[in-house]
Amino acid sequence: MLVMVIAHLADCLESHHDALIDFKISIKGLENRLSSWHGSNCCQWRGIACDNTTGSVIRIDLHNPYPLSSNTPRYAFWNLSGEIRPSLQKLKSLTHLDLSFNTLQGIPIPGFLGSLKNLQYLNLTTVGFRGSIPPNLGNLSSLQYLNVSSQPLTVYNLQWMTSLASLKHLDMNQVDLSLVGSNWIEFLNKLPFLTDLHLSNCGLFGSISSLGSLNFTSLALIDISLNSFDLKFPDWIANGKLGKNIEVLGFSDNKLHGKLPASIGNMKFLTDFDLSSNGVEGGIPSSIGRLCSLINFDLSSNNLTKSLPELLEGTENCVSGSPLPSLVSLRVSNNRLVGELPDWLGQLENLSELGLNYKLFEGSIPYSLGTLRNLTSVGLGGNKLNGTLLESFGQLPELTFFDVSSNQLQEYL
Q1: Is pLDDT of 2 > 60?
Q2: Residue 357 domain flag
Q3: Can you give the residue ranges of the Leucine-rich repeat-containing N-terminal plant-type domain (predicted)?
Q4: DSSP for 58-112?
């Protein structure tokens, strides 16, 4: 005998329904985005999800999938503007709130969001909030994801953030942190589960090299580009204090100087390394050969003066046995590197972009470079290269940019 059991999913709580209706009253864009917000069961409304058992609203996802920068008329259809009413604080079971890429312009981040203590995900990027970030967001002890980037916000003190003990992802790009001072890292160091840290263009300055006991053991991504760090390349970046799982280092457009330590070769999971537009000196250590997962490597616009390493160490540890088998982009233009181009450049089988412009390289172009069939962009201009330009470059199927100007080559394609 066949027995059919049909589970009844709970309708949304009346108090949660009323809270969302009150929120809807203050939001513009009703004729499009929120047209489904009618009827008694708010669990069926667009952007709303409920607990199947209790009927409590646990998720509000009203992000605009077409950001203004995408330059599409669909942005206006999806865009919401207005204000966030305090009625949302009645949704005590809410775990996910995403209002990103809308235009709630000119208002501060509502302080009452700090009362949603079950919140795990909060995305308020590019919404147009102004003013200071309310410290009572520190009450969100269950929060794992926080994004308040790309809007004119200011932070005066990061002490409140030390209470976000569960935080894994923090994005404060373009938020003004200049008033926090140089001790910003001491507060963030108290977030033991942090994996992604985005602090680009935040007005940060001072020392990040003298902290004695870093606790970023879970960190996989750190982006502190476009700030004002004027200091020697910090040793703790590569000596293991960032943890063994670091994948992305974004330090471009600062004032870092000093030499790259050989220990950067210990970051075996590193995929992206961007130290462009700084003042790094010396050369590139041969230990980068141990970075088998490296995809993007950018040291352009620094003060590098030595030659590229003739050999890369540790390549036998990569699965393929070839040097830097994952590398797609290599950019070291606008330095003062000298010497000949090493043969290993022609063994980078997945290389798409090669930028070696405006240096003092001499000698011939390695024949093997012309066999890299994934190349799309080659910049070798402004050097002292000589010999015959290889015809094989003209047969590369993906090549769209090729610059060998201002050299001493005998032939051109």
Answers
A1: no
A2: yes
A3: 18-51
A4: EEEE---SS-GGG--THHHHH--EE---GGGGG-TT--EEE-TTSB-TT-PPPGG
Half-sphere exposure of 377 (CA within 13 A, CB side): 10
Task: Say what the pLDDT of residue 73 is.
Answer: 79
Q: Is the dihedral of CA 306, 307, 308, 312 positive or negative?
A: negative
| CATH number, residue 353 | 3.80.10.10
For 157, the domain range is 49-210+218-409
In terms of DSSP bridges, do strands 48-50 and 57-61 run parallel, antiparallel, or are they unpaired? antiparallel
φ, ψ for residue 303 (rounded to 5)? Answer: -120, 35
Q: Please give the tally of structural domains in the chain.
A: 1
27 occurs within a structural domain: no
CA-closest candidate to residue 327, choices 342, 340, 345, 311: 345
The 3-state DSSP class for residue 387 equals: strand
Opening angle at CA 403, ends 400 and 404, nearest 5: 140
* pLDDT exceeds cutoff 70 at 5: no
Q: Let me know if residue 12 belongs to a domain.
A: no
3-state class (DSSP) for residue 18: helix
* pLDDT tens figures, 16-39: 999 999 999 988 765 667 888 999
Question: Is the pLDDT at 61 greater than 80, yes or no?
Answer: yes
Rounded CA-CA distance 130/305 in Å is: 45
Q: Is the pLDDT of residue 239 over 90?
A: no
Q: What secondary structure does DSSP assign to 156-197, as a single string?
A: S--GGGGG-TT--EEE-TT-B-TTT-TTHHHHHTT-TT--EE
With H, G, I as helix, E, B as strand and everything else as coil, classify residue 265.
helix
Which residue in the block uniquely carries the two structure tokens 């053991």?
A: 217
∠159-275-378 over CA atoms, to 5°?
150
Going by C-alpha positions, the residue among 84, 183, 62 that lies closest to residue 134 is 84
Residue 164 lies in a domain: yes
Beta-strand ranges (E) seen in 260-367 are 272-274, 279-282, 296-298, 303-304, 329-331, 338-340, 353-355, 360-363
Query: In the 8-state DSSP scheme, what is residue 228?
Result: B
Higher pLDDT, 381 or 5: 381
Give the Cα separation of 116 and 132 in Å (integer): 19
Supply the mean pLDDT for the chain.
91
User: Is residue 94 within 8 Å of residue 60, measured between CB atoms?
Assistant: yes
For 320, list phi and psi in degrees, rounded to 5.
-80, -20
Furthest-apart CA pair in the chain: how many Å?
Answer: 88
